[in-house]
Amino acid sequence: MLRRYRAGxxxxxxxxASMGSAQSAEQVPDTMEARVxxxxxxxxxxxxxxxxxxxxxxxxxxAGYLYNQLLAFRSxxxxxxxxNYLLEYLPEDxxxxxxxxxxxxxxxxxxxxxxxxxxxxxxxxxxxxxxxDSAKGIPxxxxxxxxxxxxxxxxxxxxxxxxxxxxxxxxxxxxxxTRTATEPDCMQIVAGHLTEDDVKSVAxxxxxLAGPPEPWPVAEGSYKLLxxxxxxxx
Length: 234
Fold this sequence. Notes:
Strand content: under 5%
Low-confidence stretches: 21-25
Shape: globular
Helix content: 40-55%
Number of strands: 0
Structural class: mainly alpha
Mean pLDDT: 89
Largest sheet: none
């Protein structure tokens, strides 16, 4: 009930901001920055993330990826009631503008996390991220998310600046089918080959990484993906 009430307040804020009036236009600039302030309590004013580990950083991710996720929440493909309720009545053009706004933000990455796993697990995470495990049919994360794990336009997200608990939760959601994407759902395929220890290792390793000087998605076509993904143009 509390989540639904909170979501109702957020969506009311967004809708009121999008309607606007002559009076409000004099008081508050009618900009996307002002409109997405409703997102700030969970994702930060610039999409940089907050102290809550389960609300991810949005800033700098490809607009195509962010738009796909907004659509997934609106349709219920991704299950999180506050987001499902928040986006239920927002039109696609508005979702695109929201995605483009957060994609253009450039706040610095957070400091690397201090990991609480063994050296062996951290090493396993590094192996899976950089080389994969061919014996288990697991491709390297870097094969799709880029050699520096910064992602690629238009729809491959970077993996830096996320907390281990969030990464682990999303890999778990793909493993168990509670998070899905357009077929072929490459992440569900990959996650299905991971054990729980693999998930923990990958999440710990990714969260421990410092970003490169330019931790932003590279241009479309900068490298060839290892897998075909329905959410990414080939």
